[in-house]
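Lab channel / #folding
Pinned by the channel admin:
"Please post every new chain as: sequence first, then the C-alpha cells as a reply. Keep commentary short and put observations after the output so the thread stays searchable."

First post following the new format, from NK:
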Amino acid sequence: MKIFSQVGKKLTDRLSEMLPTATVVAIPDRGMIEPGLEAEVLLTQTWGSDNIADAVARGVRWIHVLGTGVDRFPFERVGDCMVSCSRGASAIPIAEYVLAAMLAFEKRIPEIWLERQPEQWFGERLGGLYGKTLGLVGLGAIAQAVARRALAFDMNVVATRRSDAASPLPEVELTSLEDLAGRADHVVIAASATAETVGLIGATALAKMKRGVHIINVARGSLLDQEALRDALDAGLVARATLDTMVPEPLPAGHWMYDHPNVSLTPHISWSMPGAVDLLLERFLINLELYRAGKPLENVVDQSRGY
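Reply from TO:
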C-alpha cells in the first residue's frame, strides 16, 4: 500500500518506520507533485493543502486529516473521497486546559502571587469549583472528558447538544442552551464549527447568562460573537473569557482582546501536551488497519454536516 504524507518530514519518517509493509511518500503541500507518483491513502492537515486536488487525482481513495476540526478542509476539491479525522484524540489535553482555566479563575491565579509584603495576611477571598455548575456547549469527546474531570471536583454539569441522543454520562444533564446559560458559572464552548454554529454564543445567549460567568472557548472562534462578548465583558455580565480560539488567528497586533483586563488568550495550544501528536497519529493507524481489512473506518466526516 502506498500512502501520501503531507504532515512534515519528521512524522513521515516515523510513519515509514512504523509501517514497514507500506510505502509512505512525502509530497509537498503546495506546488507541483512529482510526476508518476500514485497512492491510495493521503494523510494531510486539517486545512488540507493547496495541491490536494492533484494528490487525489493520483489514485487517492481515502483521506485522513491529522487533527480534529475540519471546518477549514476543502471538501469541494476532493471529489467522492472518504475523509476521516482524529476526532477525540486531543480530549485529554484540552480537558486539562479547561480545568486549569476554571481553577485559575476561581483561585485568582496568578494575581494572588506575592511580589511584596501584603497589607494583611489572610485577607484574600477565593472561589472554588465545588458545587458550581459547568455548562458544556456540545457533548462530544472533548466535552465528555471535561465533564468527567469536573464531576471529580463535585461540580454540577449540564450540557446542550444537537442530537436527541441520551447523555453518554448519566451524571450530565442535557438541557437547552437558554437554560444552560442561566445556570452555569463556567460555560465551555466545545461544539463543532459548522455553518449552523457560527455566532452560536452571541448577544442573545450572552444576555441570558448568569452574571459573573466565566466563558471558555476551545472549539473555534466562529462560535463566539467577539463583539457581543466585548459588550458583555464591559457591562460586567461576563467576568472573564478564556479563549484558545478566536477570529482571526492569529489576532492582529493592537486587537482589543490583547489588552482587555478580563480576557485571557492562548495561541490555540490547548491540545498540546507530551505525546499529543502520537494520540492524533494513533487514530490514523487504527483506521489504516480497518481500511486494510475492508472494515468501516472510525471518525468518518459527515460532509453534509461538516464534522
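NK: The radius of gyration is 22 Å.
TO: also worth noting, The longest strand covers residues 238-243.
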